[in-house]
Amino acid sequence: MFVQNIFSFEIEKISVSSAKSSYMIEVVKGEIIVQIPDEKRDEVVQKLKGSGYFSVEKIYKDFYLARSKSSLATSNSMNILEKNGIKAYPNRIFRPFLIPNDPDISNQYYLSNINAFSAWDFEEHKTTVTVAVVDGGVDSTHMDLTSALYSTQVVVAESIDRYDNRSFKIFNEYFPFSYSLDHGTMVSGVVGAIRNTEGISGVSTAKIYSFDVFRGSSPEGTGYLDEYGIIKTMEYIKDNLSDDYYGKVIINMSLGGQGDCDPFLQSAISDLYNNSDKFIIVAAAGNEAGDVSTPANCAGVIPVSATDEGDNLSSFSNYGSAMLNGLSAPGSNIYTTVPGNDYSYVDGTSFSAPIVSAVMAEVWSKKPDYKNYEVIDLVKRTAKDLGDDGPDKKYGWGRVDMYKAFSYIESDLSSKGVNKDFLAWPNPFYISKDVYIKFSVKKSIIYTDDKLMIYDFNGNFIAYAKRDGESGFIWDGKNQDGVLVVPGPYVAYYKSDKGHAKTKFMLFR
Ligand SMILES: [Ca+2]
Ligand SMILES: [Ca+2]
Asked: Following CA atoms 102, 106, 111, 114 in sequence, which dihedral angle do they give, to the nearest 10 degrees?
């Protein structure tokens, strides 16, 4: 496949340092991004033009892309601007996270690893969630993907050279779509390969909205996009996928670059995340066995590290403090779709992220009244805790467990419309993270000689909860003999001289 390289910019490598270390990043040569408050606009633009930036273009809110003749080395010009009181950021290059494949072991162990087969035993439901795969496009003729794709809704993000300026263009493509990287087809198969008698099954039945953001950067395998393009893609999603037609939208980004989250990218991401009825953003942690990449380390993004069949961190997976907000999912030996009606084993956090995206899509589809943070919280709390106790820098909140996430939904009070006068919190009660489960009883039934008793689902008495405050009780997950009980659903039963109430909750280790 021949695709003309229509990017007009050169890539430069510069050294940056964070609190912990210094490392090389790729940036667009001669370009910087600057935040300019409206009241200082004219003054700063003049200074920039005086420093050799012939074009200053608004890209998002009060962030501007300044472009010089590309002979200006980015690091030098940033230093010069800094001395002039202008804080400038490089326009970084993002690439897809892929590790060359190493075909060997069995097919799709990741589905049993995350308990997808058990989860799918729950009642089938119509998926109302779209997964936006921001990647290298998709092979729309793949028999295991065609019907999972929006028919004419592929959008291509593209940077083109015109009159010495860069511009950015997004347009629809019609079946069959072309694609710039095999990577997007691999990611899409994990999200939603069709459940039929052919090939594989994706983790979810979500519809896939494919973005080809690497279109301008072929040949195959060398895809990249600058942050400007990512921001425009985020803006496009915010403006165009808000339509009810697409339902909730999970944005999957199995791509990125090293370094901290820049403020302009953070701004575009926050605008999506703050629309809490609509968007969830998931990103791969990256494959450098180093610190979590951008955009995975931006606030409001769920970073995903990779695990292997033994629930160990994959050797290539990034990790770090950003993972304290994240999750892990299988990323080693992932069997998935590749272009040309074919399948292959691939490795990378690129394939862990779509597992999490797919689980969140299914959860949100079952609980459309949830806010994005409630979906995220549920999937975190039901993940299998690995490594150090509780959330940690390698596995985040743990390896996603689709069955436990679904079990929680099924046992959730609000989904059944049961007595909300009596609440258990947190539910599920994750005994390795929570010291107590708390119960709150409505004041109208609180009275003297009351008791709160815990039963298992077979009706066996387990323990009395302890009083905690005027209308509350707590329980530490132990039976009357002081032994921790087994994970599963439990019933809390409150009884006083004025009335009684019961509620269900889940207990996990
Ligand atoms: Ca299939
Ligand atoms: Ca842990």
From this structure: -80
Q: Mark whether 381 and 403 lie in a shared domain.
A: yes
Give 343 Cα–ligand 1 centroid separation in angstroms. Answer: 11
CATH for 433: 2.60.40.4070
Ligand 1 centroid, distance to 196 Cα (angstroms): 5
What's the 382 CA to ligand 2 centre distance in angstroms?
A: 12
Among all bound ligands, the one having the nearest atom to the CA of 189 is 1
Taking the whole predicted model, whether its pTM rises above 0.85 is answered as no
Among residues 380, 411, 442, which one ends one of the domains? 411
pLDDT in tens, 334-364: 999 999 999 999 999 999 999 999 999 999 9
Task: Look up residue 300 and give its DSSP letter.
Answer: T
Summarize pLDDT for 429-475 with one digit per residue, the tens: 888 877 888 887 777 777 777 889 998 877 788 999 998 877 688 99
CB 63 within 8 A of CB 264: yes
Q: What is the predicted pLDDT for the residue at 122?
A: 61
In 3D space, the residue among 265, 277, 237 whose CA is nearest the CA of residue 128 turns out to be: 277
Residue type, 190: V
- Ligand 2 center to 319 CA (angstroms): 12
Q: How many domains does the chain have?
A: 2
Q: Which ligand places an atom closest to the C-alpha of 145? A: 1
Find the 346 Cα to ligand 1 centroid distance in Å: 17
For 441, the domain range is 413-508
